[in-house]
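At this stage, I needed to go through a protein sequence along with its fold in token form, as given directly below:
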Amino acid sequence: MLRVSTWLLGAALLAGTSHSVAHGQEASPPPRQPANPATDTAGHTTPGTTSGGASYVGPIMTKWGREVTPENAWRSYPRPQMARDAWMNLNGNWDYAIRPASAPQPTAMDGKILVPFAVESRLSGVARKLMPDDRLWYRRSFTLPAQWSGKRTLLHFGAVDYEATVLVNGAVVGSHKGGSDPFSFDVTAYLRPGDNELVVQVTDPTSDGDQPRGKQTLEPRGIWYTAVSGIWQTVWLEPVPDLHISDLRAVPDIDKGELAVDVALSSAATTADAVRITALDKGRVVASTIVRGNRQATLKIPKARLWSPDDPYLYDLTAELVKVTPPQGAGDDRRGLTPLTDREVQAYAAAPVVGAPADTVKSYFGMRKISTGVDPSTGKLALLLNNKPLFHNGTLDQGWWPESLLTPPSEEAARSDIVFLKKAGFNMLRKHIKIEPAQYYHDADRLGILIWQDMPSGAFGDQAVRRTSDRQATFTSTAMAEYQSELARMIGALRAFPSIVMWVTNNEGWGQYDAKTVGGIARHMDPSRLVNTASGWMDVADSASDVYDIHTYDEVPLAPEPQADRPIVTGEYGGVGLPVPGHLWFTDRDARIYQFASDKDDFRRRYRIKFDAIVRQAKDLGLAASVYTETSDVEGELNGLLTYDRAVSKLPVEEFARMAKPLFEEGDR
């Protein structure tokens, strides 16, 4: 494990070298004095070790974690951007076993695990480490409802970290590699009447590999956190007809007053297969049309009410798979109705529907536009929302939880962070190298907060670009393909959510390679959003990043150098640490990262110095956005506005809001 330890320690100390613009993540050796009254960690391995066995779970929990049971664990509908009425939730207690990766499927299991919580977490009921040479086995049974007879059955996984193979009734139905994206299999052919056995086997190299994993490590310390392995988002089943809607994408254009809607079906369609798409405003039909299957439609949305953090207005959208009387000439490509033409669009829009819909999905959209342009009040390039300058006042939001790690303990818990940030005067969060369950983004859409979405990072230890580096890292073709595939899958899964306004394709040089190509994938897949190709450290001139982003953990934040072609943003700053006794994860250390406050008054003083500098830079230099580190403490990091258990705000929420107010007052910009 020497290689892992060296990488983690080296990465944590990168910020030790001086630099005039971007200061990265620093970590000083922590003192060994206990900071919590409770010091009993019996039965858990010492934090920071890389041996197998029990995982460290800390002495704290959130109020939501204490309420979790097998009966209430993540019961909400898991795909709000494309919802069907019928589905079955498979969360709850499963059988589990951990064996050497080379061993066959066990006949006897080790006990029960609560899905969807990672095997290392307290809420899983297991709290055991999964080492790179281990294999984690899951098993449960299910019986389909009688009314699903005659339908196809899809088995969905919200996320499994990292490589999963799925078996139904002893037969392999498919495999998936990637720790953060949803995937599904059609398991119809593998089912039998009555009980069906579902088995999932998982391996996870964590920090021994170069796969995207964010801040997970086998050796938690400083800015690196407990590994997350296995199923960590909802598992569920749904019935669908043989031909059904597989994907629905809606992209607004507020300048034209239009909504482009792509509808992809599960297979090739006949000329009689069409999709009726309807936009509604509080139940009132705004626009509706019919298109041939596997086509794009355009809906007119006149006098649209625009989505913004202050007014997060959402329209409803439905897509129905219907049969139509085929238009004359449909299917005759040479002499009839040529496919993928305006003539085809017009012909299908007028085609009469025959019978009831075979499949219906419900979605929603927000009419909003994110772009860059000149702010008249400063004369500088700015971030524009709906063609108007808007300062993005955000936090670095890592989304970790003491009892459940990457999985929020409940939907309400995840939502609470957004509610807190809104009350504290923030209109944006940077979702830092982690992807949340879909329900989280749905709440962000409804509550009204902008999201900069990071791609989870991954690399070997010697593939981290330093601040003084003058070239990017070299990856294998396999590793590049995997990173790019997971990036594309992330965008595909999340681009339905209007709250997401920027893709961040690399953070602080962690495995940064070919920023132009990687950023180009995001730009070409989703031209409706901005792309930040390098948040902090190495800005690549030809990468076509929409912003120039620095990180500064100086006592008084440094300002980015002005750029002629793009807005300047501070993608990370702040990091004032304040331990709150009784609310700490580690009982034997204070992780002194960045600056450390001696008490609440010192925290207030240091926070105000930093925030006042951001306000001045916004007014005088045209700073377009800032990201304070961070929403909450995370394990050994104590830089949060909230404690790790979300029980204590380090200043009154109204005080944070008062300090933020000048950013949004016209006279102060």
In short: The radius of gyration is 25 Å. The first helix runs from residue 2 to 12. Residues 1-48 have pLDDT under 50 and may be disordered. The longest strand covers residues 353-365.
